């Protein structure tokens, strides 16, 4: 963990280094991913067998390529009652939130008598990446599948790694709850490539969504254009802005909630009180050994963690915008002034009683969010990521008469006579 102070003359350079650090996509990750994508494109299922054996340590031919929907229904039926209620509450809240994202079509006649508009249609097939290397992510399954269902996508194909051949029952139960029937036991960059290019067994999709580690995120980035993607949702991040009125233990737990995802995750605290910063740092050290995920959390905190002390919390706003974190927690007495001022964050958590983990599971908004400072230009997964907009235009003879001469003039000016002629011929009638 590094400590920075805005009062330090070297602050600007040290903060630039923090913002510019390439945590998640080192050159070797890009190179390795490019090689994996090429293998899957050229060798198809044979590459999936080999790479799954190497990275997930099981044999697809022996253990099965797909998860049987009957196993998913059995997992849902066999779920502990409290866990089932929790899963259903999450599903209901995520569904209610995303149903309000359905876009409206436009169809109108403008002042010159021209019919103009746009209509939204779902993609035919979507690929859902559900991570599963270090932890199982039934919550990510819901976050991926619910907006796809709301959008009305015809085919949902899910890929997820099953390390050592072991499937997680809660992932299966979540699949049954949202009715996903096509689940492939492949993950990593090779799973993403299979969805993009298609293989002998797996038909290609039109769009791939979902979060994952550095290899998954880089695979989606490299495959954009072959398929659509939601955005680059890589190793988790949290930026907590906290005043000294917080319990340091609460804030330490919030920082660790994202550090425990991945060694390349990043947790940052910004506070206006150096003493409070010390107390949080001590609480982080005290809590790490209590976690089953201690090794990952420790590595993430040591390598990528940061504590920044500012003279007053409003001075943090430009820093928050530069960091453009996936998650921004405003753990202050009144979050409204900061909330109004901040421009770049994937998702914002307001006040001392909104730990980010609520958003991970069942707040309602999507937890698949842009990482690596990409909240400057990208947004969290939504219903729109599964849809595309087609514009349309209709001219009556009168509307064409009104617009045509200007179109002919512009076509002449561009030196494209066939364009002009296609209009002029109709005007002559
Ligand atoms: N940004 C978001 O919205 C969001 C949401 C949830 C989870 N996450 C992130 O998802 C990630 C989940 O990671 P995970 O590892 O548990 O599961 P994962 O499914 O993302 O990755 C596991 C796969 O990574 C591949 N892999 C591992 N080491 C490799 C190597 N050396 N070379 C090539 N491929 C390799 C393997 O194929 C393996 O199957 C975490 O980083 C977490 O922070 C992000
Ligand atoms: N924090 C993750 C998004 O970065 C989502 C998640 C799922 N489960 C727990 N957390
Ligand atoms: Zn999380």
UniProtKB/TrEMBL annotation:
Pfam families: Histidinol_dh. Its EC number is 1.1.1.23. The keyword Amino-acid biosynthesis applies. It is an enzyme of class 1 (oxidoreductase). It comes from the Bacteria. Binds 1 zinc ion per subunit. Substrate binds at residues 236, 258, 261, 327, 360, 414, 419. GO terms for molecular function: histidinol dehydrogenase activity; NAD binding; zinc ion binding. NAD(+) binds at residues 129, 190, 213. Zn(2+) binds at residues 258, 261, 360, 419. Keywords: Amino-acid biosynthesis, Histidine biosynthesis, Metal-binding, NAD, Oxidoreductase, Zinc. The active site is at residues 326-327. Pathway: Amino-acid biosynthesis; L-histidine biosynthesis; L-histidine from 5-phospho-alpha-D-ribose 1-diphosphate: step 9/9. InterPro entries: Ald_DH/histidinol_DH (IPR016161), Histidinol_DH_CS (IPR001692), Histidinol_DH_monofunct (IPR022695), Hstdl_DH (IPR012131). It catalyses: L-histidinol + 2 NAD(+) + H2O = L-histidine + 2 NADH + 3 H(+). GO terms for biological process: L-histidine biosynthetic process. GO terms for cellular component: cytosol. Its cofactor is Zn(2+). Belongs to the histidinol dehydrogenase family. Catalyzes the sequential NAD-dependent oxidations of L-histidinol to L-histidinaldehyde and then to L-histidine. HAMAP family: HisD (MF_01024). This is Histidinol dehydrogenase. It comes from Sphingomonas changnyeongensis. The lineage of its organism: Bacteria, Pseudomonadati, Pseudomonadota, Alphaproteobacteria, Sphingomonadales. The gene is hisD.
């Amino acid at each position: 963990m590094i400590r920075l102070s805005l009062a330090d003359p070297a602050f600007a350079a040290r903060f630039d280094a923090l913002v510019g650090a390439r945590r998640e996509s080192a050159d070797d990750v890009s190179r390795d991913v490019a090689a994996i994508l090429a293998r899957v494109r050229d060798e198809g299922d044979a590459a999936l067998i080999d790479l799954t054996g190497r990275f997930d340590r099981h044999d697809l031919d022996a253990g099965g390529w797909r998860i049987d929907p009957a196993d998913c229904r059995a997992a849902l039926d066999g779920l502990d009652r409290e866990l089932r209620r929790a899963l259903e509450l999450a599903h209901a809240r995520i569904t209610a939130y995303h149903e309000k994202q359905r876009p409206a079509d436009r169809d109108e006649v403008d002042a010159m008598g021209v019919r103009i508009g746009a209509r939204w249609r779902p993609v035919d097939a979507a690929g859902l990446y559900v991570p599963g290397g270090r932890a199982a992510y039934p919550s990510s399954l819901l976050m991926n599948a619910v907006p796809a269902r709301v959008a009305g996508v015809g085919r949902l194909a899910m890929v997820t790694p099953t390390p050592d051949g072991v499937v997680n029952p809660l992932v299966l139960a979540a699949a049954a709850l949202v009715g996903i029937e096509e689940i492939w036991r492949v993950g990593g960059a090779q799973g993403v490539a299979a969805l993009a290019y298609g293989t002998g067994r797996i038909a290609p999709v039109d769009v791939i969504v979902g979060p994952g580690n550095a290899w998954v995120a880089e695979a989606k980035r490299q495959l954009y254009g072959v398929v659509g993607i939601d955005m680059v949702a890589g190793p988790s991040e949290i930026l907590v802005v906290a005043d000294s009125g917080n319990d340091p233990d609460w804030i330490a737990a919030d920082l660790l909630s994202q550090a425990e995802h991945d060694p390349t995750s990043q947790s940052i605290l910004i506070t206006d009180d150096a003493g409070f910063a010390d107390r949080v740092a001590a609480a982080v050290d005290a809590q790490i050994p209590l976690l089953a995920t201690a090794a990952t959390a420790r590595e993430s905190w040591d390598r990528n963690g940061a504590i920044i002390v500012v003279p007053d919390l409003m001075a943090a706003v430009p820093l928050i915008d530069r960091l453009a974190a996936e998650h921004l927690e405003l753990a202050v007495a009144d979050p409204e002034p900061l909330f109004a001022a901040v421009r770049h964050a994937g998702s914002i958590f307001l006040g001392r009683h909104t730990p980010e983990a609520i958003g991970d599971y069942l707040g309602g908004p999507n937890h698949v969010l842009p990482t690596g400072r990409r909240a400057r230009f990208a947004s969290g997964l939504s219903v729109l990521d599964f849809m595309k907009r087609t514009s349309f235009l209709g001219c009556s003879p009168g509307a064409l008469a009104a617009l045509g001469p200007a179109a002919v003039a512009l076509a002449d000016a561009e030196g494209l006579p066939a364009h002009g002629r296609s209009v002029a011929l109709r005007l002559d009638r």
